[in-house]
Amino acid sequence: MYEIIIAILIGLDQIIKYWALNYLKELNSIPVINNIFSLTYVENRGAAFGMLQNNQSIFILVAAVASCFGLYYLHSKKVNNLGKIGILLVISGAIGNLIDRVRLGFVVDYLDFHIIWSYVFNLADCFVVVGTILLCLYIITSKE
């Protein structure tokens, strides 16, 4: 069951990235809310916030190891729903960006909230961030 949820989330991420790569790339940017939010095509060869540019092999290794460990943990440990959702989101986001890195050599980013910061990100990044927050909450509140 976990693998089906992960596949659905990865599929959603990849469909949006396919659209960005094949249609948004030509337009470069589409304003959605003036001076606040745009859909902007970016090829990210680094990690979050563009850090560690051109270190694809490190990112691929980390994503693969984290995903395998997450699946192992889901199947072998007793985890409450908060922890399960966090792990599922982190795995989905890691694999979504891993697919881009292996297939394209970069990650397709498109969410541009320029009122907040100057970094462009994607749905897989959102999965990883929200999943990490949920995992932190799980660890803090876990009674085991």
What does this entry look like structurally?
This protein is of the alpha+beta class. It has one domain (2-141). 62% of the residues lie in helices and 13% in strands. The protein is built from 4 helices and 3 strands. The chain has helices at 2-27, 56-76, 81-104, 123-141, and strands at 29-33, 37-44, 107-112. It has a 3-stranded antiparallel sheet. α1 crosses α3. The relative contact order is 0.19. The model has no long low-confidence stretch (mean pLDDT 90).
Key descriptive features of the protein:
single chain; three-stranded antiparallel β-sheet; 13% strand; globular
Number of helices: 4
Strand coverage percent: 5-15%
Uncertain ranges: none
> Could you give the distance between the termini?
24 Å
Q: In what order do the strands lie side by side in the largest sheet?
A: 1-2-3
What is the average of the pLDDT values? 90
Strand element count: 3
The number of domains? 1
- Rg, nearest Å: 16 Å
Shape: globular
Helical amount among residues, as a percent range? 55-70%
Describe the largest sheet: 3 strands, antiparallel
Order of helices and strands: HEEHHEH
What structural class do helix, strand and pairing data support? alpha+beta
Topology:
Layout: H1 2-27, E1 29-33, E2 37-44, H2 56-76, H3 81-104, E3 107-112, H4 123-141
Antiparallel strand pairs: 1-2, 2-3
